[in-house]
Batch of 4 targets.
Target 1
Amino acid sequence: MKIFGVTGWKNSGKTGLMERLITEFTARGLSVSSIKHAHHSFDIDHPGRDSYRHRDAGARQVLLASRNRWALMHELRNEDEPSLGDLLKQLLPVDLVLIEGYKRDRHPKIEAHRKETGQPLIAPEDETIVAVASDTSVTIDRPVLDLNDTASIANFIAQHLKLDV
């Protein structure tokens, strides 16, 4: 599996770019999965739901299945957070895994950058960022792409990973 990341500060456009890239790559015929890192506790089910009740009762894993999808929830129960590498091993093989977040991991990334956040670029301090996608002009020693030009960003990623699309 080829992996490529999207990183950036909060509200920099990461999730929107991820969504557009997934759409673009699947339209080009690739199988795509994604991993998103959350910096906070999150729930995909809610109090009162059966799956929540199972988990709340102490189940280590709860697998929720229907005819349309299934989801496996795994409670860490005081275990360390799994590494990106461990999480990648949980995925079925696909052509491309797009990763949102995981700034400190060593896979190639594109930085999403929006002027309105007022944040500095991460790229100058991180050689794993191979390009910047921005809505404003930036000066850096790596390619700068238009944050809103999804096809060009997808082309860059495909070329960087040597994907056949």
Target 2
Amino acid sequence: MTEKFEPRIVAFFCNWCTYTAADLAGVSRLKYAPNVRVIRVMCSGRVDPQFVLDAFARGADGVLLGGCHPGDCHYAEGNYKTLRRMRMLERMLKGMGIYDGRFRLEWISGAEGDKVRAVVNEITEKVRALGPLDMPGKFKEWDKEIEELEAHINQGGPRKEKLHV
């Protein structure tokens, strides 16, 4: 019997808008997928791209970043900083083979509880359809490939010294 895949999604929500909207969704009893684990940050501009990469490396199948609408940031320009960083990160993720909706940036104000529900459900369904990412498993495969390459090189080639990676 095959179990249905349930994605693990990490969400970084800005304290002032998106986290407040998620709270509104909760008190309004709006139902959304339970697959998202929310990390509250003071501003989306404080989310370093490395946080997103770490989430994927530690087994997340998707990452959602939510912040204030442009022009409404409580820290003046935090979301513009986010936009620049995340566009660069999207290009890097694509180069790593992580794309097709596994990472999503959304602007959600504190009054948009229904939008939180919609976005969470959309990313959950999208990632569920894509299947597991399993970056920790891929790291093991890549390490094995490097070890095999190292063994092949060290078997004999023109140089007798060992290759240390």
Target 3
Amino acid sequence: MPVSSSELIEARRDEIISACEKLYETMSFKDITIREIGRITPFGRTSIYNYFQTKEEIFLALMQREYELWAAELRGLAESTESMSLADFSAFLAHSLEKREQLLKLLAMNHYDMEENSSSESLTAFKVAYGASLDAMRGCVKKFFPEQDTERFIFVFFPFLFGVYPYAVATQKQLDAMKAAKMDFKMHSIYEMIDSCVRQLLGGAE
């Protein structure tokens, strides 16, 4: 069956997003350019502008993809599981976000600039994916912990995620600076922070 033009567009967009993701594993946002992304795609820098207007749009699409994958995982949990203990649910969320380190890293970035430098269409598509993750989480909390205030959980937990990455991952330069400043600071893993937060927010549900 021949590939349709819409399928080809989506495949190309996905290749560009994946190339950006690969670079972001070792490079900072400011150092990644359209040119750099083009170097590791089979169709080059100029063609990228047929799919994304700015670098920020590519990063926004990467974050959109991460939210879509996470939302699908949450929906799968709600559909396949009848009940969960608080310990099991907090562990599930901690593991699910431990796998989504790129999402947490993106959340620590300046969203205002990223969204301002993206088209309305790209921003809307991202907001749809973000909204779907909120709804998927609502579905889990309402099903497994019906006596809890779901909206309170949502509007504490989701903003909390914006600060997880900086507290879990530090460069050697940051660690040296904290040591020089004589800061009494202990790094915690993504798992530890998510698990602790969920337990505290839903404590007493069991």
Target 4
Amino acid sequence: MTDRDELRELLIERSVRLGDFTLASGAKSDYYIDARRTTMSAEGQRLVGRVAYDAIREHGLRPTHVGGLTMGADPIAYAIAHVSAIEGDVIDGFSVRKRTKEHGTGQRIEGGLPVHGQALMVEDTMTTGRSTLQAVEAVRAHGANLVGVLTLVDRSENARSFYEAQGLPLISLYTGEELVEAARNR
């Protein structure tokens, strides 16, 4: 079984929930994917880092930094950073706060993303892509260049075309449909 297959199984086992839910976008759904139950686990960290790092390279992206809106993006960014160090091709992580910090240095972006850095935005589960856009705008305002967006799970509500209109390719590691179908067949 490949790392991608193992991660898919872990997501189905730990993160897919069937029932009635209201999503962050306000939409109603008969399933919910709490990816943090996978991305924050030790095994999930190993698999997410490897699968996402490989996908970044397969798509020809060369970010210097990877991150996104805290908290969903954090474990994914850090797992990718870890694997990149092992591979000798370092991609550092960063986090974008929902709001600028009102104390200390007053930063909205944590982790040392430099002005003119090459940033890849990450998200755990994406429906419309609009919440990730907050982080995209913060990184652009900071002065970093965006090379694309990566989501662990794409719930497939036109996020790809939304980001293409922003000039950013979207890498989706899994679709919500494929995970839910597999969960329902168990």
